Amino acid sequence: xxxxxxxxxxxxxxxxxxxxxxNATFTLxxxxxxxxxxxxxxxxxxxxxxxxxxxxxxxxxxxxxLSGTKAATLTLEDVVLTAGRRSDAVxxxxxxxxxxxxxxxxxxxxxxxxxxxALLMAIEKQFVSLDSLKKLMNQAASTRFGSGxxxxxxxxxxxxxxxxxxxxxxxxxxxxxxxGIPIVGIDVWEHAYYLKYQNKRGDYLTAIWNVxxxxxxxxxxxxxxxxxxLLRIEKDTWTALKDFxxxxxxxxxxxxxxxxxxxxxxxxxMLAKATLLQTAPIPASFNKAEIKKAIGDLVKGATDxxxxxxxxxxxxxxxxxxxxxxxxxxxxxxxxEE
Length: 338
Ligand SMILES: [Fe+2]
Fold this sequence. Notes:
Blueprint: H1 2-22, H2 44-66, H3 76-81, H4 88-106, H5 117-127, H6 130-143, E1 148-154, E2 160-166, E3 181-187, H7 194-197, H8 201-208, H9 214-225, H10 228-236, H11 239-256, H12 261-279, H13 289-310, H14 315-336
Antiparallel strand pairs: 1-2, 1-3
């Protein structure tokens, strides 16, 4: 027992030191071009202030907001994906860092003026032409009230979609209505254009296309199609799975610590959520025989657990049954990641 404790203690301190060592410190990315190289479309002063002041502030404030928190070890993608569970400071600054990093990458003084290959085919299939896509993007950008971004995203069903978001939110975030991986982002905060274009957002939106590099966007399109992040976003949109997870977490964890009250009070709700998971549509990538079978097992287990609760079963019996149900749930989670 004593040996076991020492090993546990060592493992605990080791994991602490690892956590400390792995704390992410985000840094401002360098641009692939000089501040004046996007002239006359974006002026040098705007570029310099935008990159070295605004973007730097997002990076500095993100590091500050994450410091000493559990989220400090997460990747930027993870922080952005789970923005709804973070503080406003983390959500806004992580979005600011992610969005601007993408923005600088897709701009170029030697921009490829039109898409080619798979991206061109997808644009023509969905939007008929590049011009009609640009019109939709400009519409999304000009109608975004206040500060925000207009996006071209790859959705979990591997389609292109135009959308916009407020402030520094983006479509990777769990708080966004439209979800997917952005491959074009147009910054419509006034700081992106005010020095040169003042209140004429439309003129800025006309000019931005002259420096938008469709070569880089094409690479981003192909990377997004096979990105594990796309699968994670798709799983995140599976509301029935998330709802079941919530009830499971709120009943199983207290049960593990000897408190069976939440489980006794909510076993019927858990059964209802399991049944809903079985009957609600399953997102395409997870609509597989082995996942459906595991969901069937989950319903059986939840039915049995609810029956045992109603018969006022003993604590140890309930703990055994919810542990088994929790294992089944994790089989589903694991199958979704394959
Ligand atoms: Fe900006």
